[in-house]
Specification:
- With about 150 residues, the chain is mostly beta strands.
- The chain has a single domain, classed as Lipocalin.
- Helix content is about 10%, strand content about 45%.
- It contains one helix and eight strands, in the order αββββββββ.
- The protein has an eight-stranded antiparallel β-barrel with strand order 1-2-3-4-5-6-7-8.
- The chain is globular and about 45 Å long.
Length: about 150
């Protein structure tokens, strides 16, 4: 009985440590096209140097679309200009706030080359991604990627 009690206490003490560094926003997410409502890409969100970033790791393309496009609509001063979209970091410098949301970063829409201020958060196990242009904004829902 002592051993079971000791195991229970050990597991209780280790539970918070096992969860450290775990964040529901990290991982792979499917983006949806606002116009067609079809899958557009898979974005992998990861932490680096205390901030969160996201890069496109897969595109869902139609037969008449370039399967490996470049960001030719990106601003010429942007280092992503004319770079391949697959592997491109589109979510940058997101900082975790006390409420668990991430803010103060930017998101690039490679479809039009525009960069927006960004905020992301988890809602009902989905990722909400909001891009701001001044006081205007658009929110997308990204879904957990299942291979």
């Amino acid at each position: 009985m002592k051993h079971i009690f000791a195991l229970f206490i050990t597991l209780m003490l280790l539970a918070p440590i096992a969860g450290m560094g775990q964040d529901a926003a990290l991982g792979k997410w499917v983006t949806i096209d606002d116009d067609t409502n079809e899958k557009k890409s898979v974005v992998e969100i990861y932490e680096r140097d205390g901030k969160v970033y996201g890069k496109i790791i897969k595109l869902f393309r139609g037969p008449d679309e370039d399967p490996d496009p470049v960001c030719d609509d990106c601003d010429e001063d942007d280092p992503r200009f004319m770079k391949k979209v697959i592997g491109m970091e589109i979510l940058t410098d997101m900082v975790k706030e006390e409420d668990g949301d991430y803010e103060d970063g930017e998101i690039l829409d490679p479809k039009n080359g525009k960069v927006y201020s960004c905020r992301i958060w988890i809602e009902n196990e989905d990722l909400k991604v909001r891009g701001y242009w001044g006081f205007l904004y658009r929110t997308q829902t990204w879904y957990k990627y299942k291979n």
